[in-house]
Specification:
The protein has 424 residues and is an alpha+beta fold. It contains 10 helices and 5 strands; from the N terminus they run ααααααααβαββαββ. The chain folds into 2 domains: 189 residues, no CATH class; 129 residues, Histidine kinase-like ATPase, C-terminal domain (Heat Shock Protein 90, 2-Layer Sandwich), CATH 3.30.565. Helix content is 57%, strand content 9%. α3 runs antiparallel to α4. The longest helix has 82 residues. The protein starts with 45 loop residues before the first helix and ends with a strand.
């Protein structure tokens, strides 16, 4: 799982992962973790324990104040009822310590006790608030109904001569509605915070995925460049080395010239390989500086290099000189010609390769490379081939939005034809 091993968020299920909620979004009077329905253990932080202790002490103090106020009426309750009320209040307040683990059970029990006990009234409101925060609205509605029934029974069991039963029932209903509304507001706010945190984390994961995909794409492009460049250089090395092997009695000047070309090609191949390996080892987000990429204007230089290596190449270019081809089109055309000449050296050495480039903005650019089949065996032995040259050409041209055609013509020549789009 990305970004650590924490489980995914489920905002609709309530607050399940407190470590994802910023501290300034937390509500002091409620838990930051949804209580488990099975009554399992609940992890409590120091803040949670402080909140629970505050709730218990506040409920005890409020219950004692309500119990004391009940002694000031014209007809105070009996001593036995006072002792029962006080006992129920103490037990109910201490039960708040388990409201996180059993919110519904604690709330129902305290609401039942509040039907005759003044001292448990504040604790029952705390428990009702906990249910509103941590449970869905059907459960909250059911517990609220229990609260309404409990308030009605309190009016029956503990009537106040100075206040009518209607007003007491209305006050109980208002308190219940206010506590439930506050709890559901806190729940909705927490769900909103969690959804925003989840959205931010998803956006971060998507960003990391896009970065990784960009790196993979770049490394794939570098691998193609490595294949094209090194195959070209190594084929030149093979051709010159084969010439020296075929003509050991060549004049010293020709041998020296061929050896110089071999040394220069080997050095260029090593430079290309060093640059590619350096890029592959770079894991930073920055783009390493490299040599300028070839363009359509570099094709004549490529052909001349092949001619100096002993190949016979006929080059025809029918492209407007005053219009520069787009970078992608020019680089793709260059690599296509490079791969085509490499294949000719590998599979049809000694033949004449005809390279024809034509096109302009609008109709597009066409690269046509034709060569006849080799007659007899290669003079210097066939060079090894990975068999992926034309596959790489197809992938490269496909990325540029072009098309590739290759195969034997009716005249018995092998033809590689590539069309590349060139916007007007």
């Amino acid at each position: 799982m990305e970004l650590g091993t924490r489980p995914p968020l489920d905002p609709a299920a309530g607050v399940e992962h407190p470590w994802l909620v910023p501290a300034h979004f937390r509500v002091p009077d409620t838990d930051d973790q949804r209580p488990p329905r099975g009554g399992g253990p609940v992890r409590r932080s120091g803040r949670d324990r402080a909140v629970d202790l505050t709730a218990v002490l506040s409920s005890l103090l409020g219950g004692l104040l309500l119990l004391g106020a009940s002694q000031e009426v014209a007809q105070p309750p009996s001593e036995a009822l006072v002792v029962l009320d006080l006992t129920a209040g103490v037990v109910g307040c201490l039960a708040l310590w388990g409201r996180r683990r059993w919110p519904v059970g604690v709330a129902v029990a305290l609401l039942v006790l509040s039907s005759f006990s003044n001292a448990v009234g504040v604790a029952a409101l705390f428990a009702l608030f906990t249910v509103a925060v941590h449970r869905r609205w059907p459960t909250v509605l059911a517990v609220s109904a229990v609260s309404a029934v409990s308030g009605s029974l309190f009016v029956v069991f503990r009537p106040d001569p100075d206040v009518s039963g209607l007003w007491m029932s209305l006050l109980a209903a208002v308190l219940t509605a206010g506590v439930v509304a506050w709890g559901m507001f806190v729940r909705a706010r927490r769900q909103l915070v969690l959804s925003l945190v989840d959205r931010a984390r998803r956006a971060e994961r998507e960003r990391d995925l896009r970065v990784e995909q960009a790196r993979h794409t770049e490394r794939t492009r570098i691998a193609r460049e490595m294949h094209d460049v090194l195959a070209h250089r190594i084929s030149l090395l093979g051709m010159h080395a084969g010439a020296l092997e075929y003509r050991p009695d060549a004049p010293p000047e020709e041998v020296a010239r061929a050896a110089g070309v071999i040394r220069a090609s080997a050095r260029q191949a090593m430079d290309d390989l060093r640059e590619v390996i350096g890029v592959l080892r770079d894991d930073t987000d920055g783009t390493p500086a490299g040599r300028p990429q070839p363009t359509l204007a570099d094709v004549p230089t490529l052909v001349e290099e092949s001619r100096q290596a002993g190949m016979r190449v006929e080059l025809t270019i029918d492209v407007p000189r005053d219009v520069a081809a787009p970078e992608v089109i020019g680089r793709t055309a260059y690599r296509v010609v490079q791969e085509a000449l490499t294949n000719v050296r590998k599979h049809a050495g000694g033949t004449v390769a005809a390279v024809h480039l034509s096109g302009r903005p609008g109709p597009g650019l066409t690269v046509d490379v034709v060569n006849p089949p080799v007659v007899g065996a290669h003079a210097f032995g066939a060079l090894p081939s990975a068999g992926t040259g034309l596959v790489g050409v197809g992938e490269r041209v496909g990325l540029a939005g072009g098309t590739v055609e290759h195969g034997w013509t009716a005249e018995g020549r092998f033809r590689l034809r590539v069309w590349l789009p060139w916007a007007a």
